[in-house]
Amino acid sequence: MRNKYADMIRDLSSLGIDLTDKQLAQFDKYYELLIKWNEVMNLTAITDFDSVCKLHFVDSLSAYKYFDFAKDEYTLIDVGTGAGFPGIPLKIVFPDLKVTLLDSLNKRLNFLNEVIENLDLNEKGSIVTLHGRAEDYSSPSNSNSLRESFDIAVSRAVANLSTLSEYCLPYVKIGGKFIAYKSEKAGEELSRAKGAIHLLGGKLSDSPEFILPNSEYNRTICIIDKKEKTSSKYPRKAGVPSKKPLS
Hints:
The protein has 247 residues and is an alpha/beta fold. 34% of the residues lie in helices and 20% in strands. The protein has a single domain, classed as Vaccinia Virus protein VP39 (Rossmann fold), CATH 3.40.50.150.
């Protein structure tokens, strides 16, 4: 197993992560399930083993270099989790995290529930899936609202940072963090999003740009501190944040 994952082990070691044999076996099963389910539904365009390891697994864990997910038993919501990135890799490596995986497509959650069961991810701390749009469960009018309930919100969703901030910051407690994974250098996008971040009660703490280990892939991790409560005006109704991003 270690020979099979030698490149990923090397990459993660450079981030300060050393995988146990159990964690390697969990990643191996995750990859098998991803490929199996991807044959019948669209989970990812990336299926090559080495590419999945680099562009999904290592990428999902790259934020650890800039935020210590193991420091406490954090509550974390992965907004628009898709095939479980970054939430599942974070849960594998940091089992004490209490993770909620939110997605708008139920069939993706069926996949994730099978992953959770097969990888025994509930052995230490909770992990749950939640069906709905990003705007649904942070709305003040929702009787089941999870508004300002989490220490950390993460998202690797493909959306501009203004929209992502409106999706994610309402879920974060004051004193918590929103961590956005961006697939390229994001300086201009950050500049455009500053007003939205402020409106939503956040403040940019750090935005390191880096290259994924042993690759040519540029990445940016945007770390936003939740400084004040989000106004009850946000998030706006479903669909509006993506069509009319805050400025």
